[in-house]
Amino acid sequence: MARFFYTPKPRQFSYKPRFYDPEKEAREKRREELLGVRPAEGEEYVPGELLRRRRMQRMMEDATAARRKKQKGSGLLLVAFIVLLIVAFLWLSA
Question: Could you list the residue ranges that cross the membrane (predicted)?
Fold first, then answer.
């Protein structure tokens, strides 16, 4: 009857990392602080600050992507215009 109320102990898990690089850890931490993923040490917590940083970062990325797309489109337009001029020149000279 004692076995009926017996509950086994959970299995033990012991994880030991094989390699730890404190310099890499510091670089990643600093990168997260600069990207706004985590507040810098010593900074006072401001509610919503991380969300604002992420939103600003997203806006900057979107603006950069739009600028690249616009530049790419203008190059294609220039090539089309040059081809049109060549065709017009050949048609008029014939």
Answer: 75-92
Tell me the CA distances in angstroms from 13 to 7, 8, 18, 32, 36, one per residue in order.
18, 15, 16, 30, 34
The amino acid at 40: A
How remote is the C-alpha of 67 from its chain's centroid?
Answer: 18
59 in Cβ contact with 76 (< 8 Å): no
The per-residue pLDDT for range 24-71, each reduced to its tens digit, is 989 988 888 777 666 667 777 777 777 888 888 888 888 888 887 777
User: Rounded CA gap, 35 and 30, in Å?
Assistant: 9
* Continuous H helices in 43-94: 49-93
Contact (Cβ atoms closer than 8 angstroms) between residue 32 and residue 43: no
